[in-house]
Specification:
Strand content: 15-25%
Structural class: alpha+beta
Number of helices: 2
Length: 159
């Protein structure tokens, strides 16, 4: 009988190759998932940056309107003798549109309440509401505040 030649096991070579292929495939899948997650995070952060930018621009615009309203309130308060005259004169003196934004006036217990909305985007607006107040409360000679802010919030425009 002839002696048997050394036989090599091809099974071990195949298992190692399959393991290498499996590891490479796993790395490729994880790299794709990481790239997908990074793209999603980037898109989300861009949307958030745009939203924040729109919000702060609307706040700046609302503050500019508030400055004009405050100046009108101060001049009207100096010229008025009492709260009733102040409210009536202010209501007549106020422009119904400031910087292209319509100002709505409601009267609650003879006190004007001003409301305006500044659009942030197609779906949201910044709502600002002020309650006008007579600055000489309690018969003081030093003026107090002309208004109190009752709302400064983001609202949805969708129905």
């Amino acid at each position: 009988m002839k002696p048997k030649k050394n036989q090599f096991s091809y099974i071990n070579i195949g298992a190692a190759s399959l393991l290498v292929i499996f590891v490479i495939l796993c790395l490729a899948i994880f790299a794709t998932l990481s790239l997908s997650g990074a793209k999603s995070n980037y898109t989300f952060s861009e949307k958030m940056a745009l939203h924040k930018s729109n919000y702060y621009n609307a706040c700046n615009q609302a503050t500019e309107i508030l400055e004009e309203v405050d100046a009108l309130l101060a001049s009207t308060a100096k010229a008025s003798q009492n709260a009733q005259d102040f409210y009536v004169e202010f209501t007549y003196a106020l422009d119904r549109e400031i910087k292209g934004i319509p100002i709505m006036i409601a009267i609650d217990h003879q006190v004007p309440i001003l409301t305006w909305e500044i659009p942030l985007d197609d779906n949201q607006s910044l709502l600002v509401q002020l309650k006008v107040q007579w600055p000489y409360q309690n018969d003081t000679t030093e003026p107090g505040y002309h208004y109190s802010i009752t709302k400064w919030q983001t609202i949805s425009n969708t129905n």
